[in-house]
C-alpha cells in the first residue's frame, strides 16, 4: 500500500493552526490538494491558502464548525466539487480541556460554556464525536467513488494522554483513549476495503493548545522538559500515509534504525523519537524526551483550589 500524495486530495479539519496546519503545509509541498476545514485561519494558514490559490496544487479554506454535522457533510461536498475524488481525511481538530469545556469548571461555573440544560460537553463533541462522524462520512464518500487503484487514508490525532491518566485533564484523556480504541476497531478496513485508518499520538507539542494557556504552560519546566514541534509530528503523519514502514528517528528514511510496520490500526507515539503503541501490555510513553511535564503538581494544586470553592459543581440557587 505504498502511496504518493502527489496529485491526490485531502480534507484536514483544524488546519487553521498547530499540528494540522503543519500537516496541511507538508501535504501541499508534496503536491497534494487540501481543503482546510476550521472556524478561522491564523496568519500562517491564510498565507498557505494564498500561496496555493492557483496552480497544479491548490489549498482552499472551508469555514467549518466541526460539531455541526451538516457542516461536516458540506466540507466533503466542497472538496469533491473542487478536487474530484478525496483520498486522505484527517479529522484533526481538537481542544485541550479549555476553561469553557472543562471537567473542573463544570456547567454553572462562570467560565463554562457547557449549558446545564444542553446535555453536552463541547470538548467531547470536538474531540471524539467529530472524528467519529467525519470517519463515517469519509468511508461513505470513499465507497461512493471507489477506485481500486487509489488507496484511501483516514488519519486521526490521538495523544500520549490516550495511554496515560492525568488528573488535570480527565475529559481530554478520556477522548484520546476513545480515539485509540476507535482507530484499532477499524483496523480491518485496510485489508478488506483498502481504507487505512491510523493515528499519531503526540507528546507535548509546542502549539497554541499549550502556549496560549498559562495554567498548562506552567507544567513545562525548562531544562527538564522538551517540546516536540508540529513539523516533527507532521513528518510522521505523512509517513503514515505514504510509507509501509516508519523509522524510530523522525525524518529518517534510510531504513538503518528500528522500523515500525504501518497498517490499519497503527498508532505511532511521537515524542522526540517515534514509537509504535501496542494494543496490549504497552509500557506507556514513559519519560522519553518530549513526553514529560515536570510541573504537573502546580496545575494539580489549582484543581484542588477549584474544588475547595463553596458549591462547586452544584446548580446555582
Automatic annotation (TrEMBL):
The keyword Oxidoreductase applies. The keyword Ligase does not apply. SUPFAM superfamilies: NAD(P)-binding Rossmann-fold domains. One of its GO terms (cellular component) is cytoplasm. Keywords: NADP, Oxidoreductase. GO terms for molecular function: oxidoreductase activity, acting on the CH-OH group of donors, NAD or NADP as acceptor. Belongs to the short-chain dehydrogenases/reductases (SDR) family. PANTHER family: 15-HYDROXYPROSTAGLANDIN DEHYDROGENASE [NAD(+)] (PTHR44229:SF4). This is Uncharacterized protein. It comes from Penicillium bovifimosum. The lineage of its organism: Eukaryota, Fungi, Dikarya, Ascomycota, Pezizomycotina.
Amino acid at each position: 500500500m505504498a502511496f504518493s500524495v502527489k496529485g491526490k486530495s485531502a480534507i484536514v479539519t483544524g488546519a487553521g493552526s498547530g499540528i494540522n496546519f503543519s500537516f496541511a503545509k507538508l501535504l501541499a509541498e508534496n503536491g497534494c490538494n487540501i481543503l482546510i476545514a476550521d472556524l478561522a485561519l491564523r496568519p500562517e494558514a491564510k498565507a498557505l491558502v494564498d500561496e496555493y490559490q492557483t496552480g497544479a496544487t491548490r489549498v482552499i479554506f472551508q469555514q467549518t464548525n466541526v460539531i455541526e454535522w451538516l457542516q461536516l457533510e458540506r466540507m466533503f461536498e466542497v472538496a469533491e466539487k473542487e478536487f474530484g475524488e478525496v483520498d486522505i481525511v484527517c479529522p484533526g481538530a481538537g481542544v485541550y480541556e479549555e476553561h469553557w469545556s472543562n471537567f473542573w469548571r463544570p456547567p454553572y461555573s462562570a467560565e463554562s460554556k457547557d449549558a446545564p440544560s444542553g446535555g453536552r460537553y463541547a470538548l467531547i463533541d470536538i474531540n471524539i464525536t467529530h472524528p467519529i462522524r467525519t470517519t463515517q462520512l469519509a468511508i461513505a464518500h470513499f465507497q461512493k467513488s471507489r477506485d481500486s487503484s487509489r488507496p484511501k487514508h483516514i488519519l486521526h490525532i490521538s495523544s500520549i494522554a490516550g495511554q496515560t491518566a492525568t488528573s488535570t485533564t480527565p475529559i481530554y484523556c478520556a477522548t484520546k483513549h476513545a480515539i485509540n480504541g476507535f482507530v484499532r476497531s477499524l483496523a480491518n478496513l485496510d485489508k478488506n476495503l483498502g481504507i487505512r485508518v491510523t493515528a499519531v499520538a503526540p507528546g507535548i507539542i509546542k502549539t497554541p493548545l499549550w502556549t496560549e494557556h498559562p495554567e498548562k504552560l506552567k507544567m513545562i519546566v525548562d531544562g527538564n522538559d522538551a517540546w516536540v514541534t508540529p513539523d516533527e509530528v507532521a513528518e510522521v503523519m505523512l509517513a503514515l500515509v505514504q510509507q509501509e514502514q516508519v523509522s524510530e528517528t523522525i525524518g529518517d528514511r534510510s531504513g538503518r534504525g528500528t522500523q515500525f510496520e504501518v497498517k490499519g490500526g497503527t498508532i505511532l507515539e511521537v515524542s522526540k523519537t517515534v514509537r509504535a503503541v501496542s494494543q496490549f501490555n504497552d509500557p506507556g510513553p514513559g519519560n522519553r524526551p518530549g513526553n514529560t511535564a515536570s510541573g504537573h503538581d502546580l496545575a494539580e494544586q489549582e484543581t484542588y483550589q477549584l474544588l475547595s470553592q463553596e458549591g462547586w459543581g452544584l446548580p446555582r440557587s
